[in-house]
Write a structure and sequence with these properties.
This protein is an alpha/beta fold. It contains 19 helices and 25 strands. Helix 2 packs across helix 14 and helix 4 packs parallel to helix 19. Bound molecules: flavin-adenine dinucleotide (FAD) and 2-acetamido-2-deoxy-beta-D-glucopyranose (3 copies). Belongs to the GMC oxidoreductase family. Keywords: FAD, Flavoprotein.
Amino acid sequence: MQNSTITGIIIMKSSTHFLFLVAAFALRGAYARNPNWGFTEHMLNYAMEMVKHASEEPRDEVNILPEYDFIVVGAGSAGCVVANRLTEVSQWDVLLLEAGGEENYIMDIPVVAMLLQFTDANWNYKGVPSNKTCLGLTNRQCLFPRGKVMGGSSVLNYMIHNRGSRKDYDLWEDMGNIGWGYEDVLPYFLKSEDIAIPELAKNTKYHSTGGYMTISYPPYRTPLAEAFLQAGIETGYQIVDYNAETQTGFSFIQTSTKNGTRWSTSRAFLHPIRGRKNLHVSKRSYVTKILIDHDTKRAYGVEYIRNKKRYVVHARKEVILSAGGINSPHLLMLSGVGPKKHLEDMNIPVIEDLKVGYNLMDHMAVIGITFLVNESVSLRSDMVFQNGKDLIDYFRYHEGPLTTAGGVEAIAFYDTKNLKGIKGYPDIELIFIGGSIVSDPTLRKTFGISDYIYERTYKPIQKSHAWMIIPTLLAPKSRGRIMLKDNKPLHKPLIFHNYLQYSDDLETLLKGVKLSVDLSETEAFQKFGSKLHDVPVPGCEQFAFRSDDYWRCIIKHLTCSMFHVSGTCKMGPASDQGAVVDPRLRVYGIKGLRVIDSSIMPVVPRAHTNAPTVMIAEKGADLVKEDWGQLG
Ligand SMILES: Cc1cc2nc3c(=O)[nH]c(=O)nc-3n(C[C@H](O)[C@H](O)[C@H](O)COP(=O)(O)OP(=O)(O)OC[C@H]3O[C@@H](n4cnc5c(N)ncnc54)[C@H](O)[C@@H]3O)c2cc1C
Ligand SMILES: *[C@@H]1O[C@H](CO)[C@@H](O)[C@H](O)[C@H]1NC(C)=O
Ligand SMILES: *[C@@H]1O[C@H](CO)[C@@H](O)[C@H](O)[C@H]1NC(C)=O
Ligand SMILES: *[C@@H]1O[C@H](CO)[C@@H](O)[C@H](O)[C@H]1NC(C)=O
């Protein structure tokens, strides 16, 4: 079966269960090409692992009680951690409500990360069409995938495990968030970690073993990934452990994977505790409202829809919102907590006037900068899916190219304000991909690249070997906003990302693009004859190719999200007019309601946001325990 047929089916059926069939077909095809490979044995191993995976997720509870001590909304990166830690207190009972369904074995094959965006495990958000950025994308819309599945976005993400630097969290503390400085949060990063990289594990100040979340290097690497690190050395940078003392430098990615498979927060934090009697999980349960008493201003439960029926469930102690950077502010506003004027415009009775939905931050990036090579050394999706050996390597041994994190292999962090300083505070990240995802007709759709640009610029190199760098802006000045479209809970909110509100952001990204091109010219990459793909992107043809203005135009056309939407329920002290939650994550003015997820970040760390979100959940759960006299 052709790769295009496979991906076509995935898109058509849009059902995660269909992924199983795809894998079975692929294996069947591999066997047809290599009949001496012991088909039965491999299929048996595949089937056994599949069944084991399915049986380890906590079951979907049908007998929901009328009342729980705590209700956690959303089983994502944060919600799974919170549910685990709160049910450590045996006299508490907890209900975890998740809009999505089961995570499955296929979703946890690292290389398929991008394909999951075509399934029903994605909320499928799109930004409001912008006039400044995303200009080369269909309808000028940047895409905002989010996980709608057990594990949330930790099932859709690229698994890069990255904490950020000391300064990121010291800044939170300086803003008045007592208890969130680096020395306070480092123990929480360590608490969940189980590092499976021996040379890093030795550094016990920054790493630990035995936690729920396993961190590994993927067992497979392209020669191009090695070249990327070599290029770093050639240009005067260091190889670093970016989760330790120094962030600026080059590294292979540390990933949230275990034995070559994705280790989502559901697998890490929920599978091992599926036997706890005091945890109920209700899947395909879409929360539509947090119930708040108008007089006492206490949150006393939630309303949700399951199988087209409406239910109400009460909370004795607290409702905890862990629905993520887009959905947490959405739900708060629907429930009467948000900017007064906006809620009135939407005909929602206002319970508390707070700046919900403001302060949206994301790491914007530029997609499409591609370098051609003269040897067959890159990852190509058609080869990965059709090469029988690669499939067997994965299904039998959890090895080979299918273990790479959606093609991402290595990263570099730069402080462009102090390029040669080694102890910098990074403002640019270069994400290295050992293949070209924009010249794949299917994968480019995950970034929304328009058909016209694809046909003209990228289709001609569809069959070539190539690699890419995605320059990413780590410390955006720009702030966006989430707003309601109307007061219907099932309607998607509006996402105003507001990328490049400030020209500084554009100029910093421009430096990132130029650094990427410089790397391609190193000896390490010239060994493979690396050459910048030079078919100009329509819309930018009026500028001299490779000129600064050409690159500025590219940044505005091929804009993409690095998926780190955060900050929309900002944490801050009482004096902060923009704060939605206090430093104990309690929603201002409302009793019995906290937000614990990526939306509380006052400033997004200069890092990928999964590990920081898990940290927030670890610390948040301790704050809850402390407030109810259950800590230690
Ligand atoms: C495609 C992609 C790639 C990424 N790559 C990386 C990476 O490589 N490294 C990294 O560190 N970070 C990465 N991220 C970001 C990281 O995964 C997120 O920052 C993190 O998962 C956010 O966690 P959260 O708990 O705030 O939200 P989520 O994990 O999104 O969890 C929210 C959960 O709440 C559920 N929910 C929402 N609304 C409702 C409702 N009304 N009722 C019931 N349930 C609801 C959702 O279905 C979801 O399960 C990526 C994200 C994406 C989408
Ligand atoms: C983009 O421009 C159009 C026409 O000028 C305008 O109506 C629209 O509101 C603008 N969109 C944004 C997001 O600014
Ligand atoms: C990793 O997975 C493979 C394939 O299922 C299995 O054979 C192997 O024993 C696993 N390794 C570890 C260390 O668990
Ligand atoms: C690729 O290009 C490099 C640099 O020009 C050259 O040294 C190398 O031999 C080429 N490899 C092949 C397979 O053509």
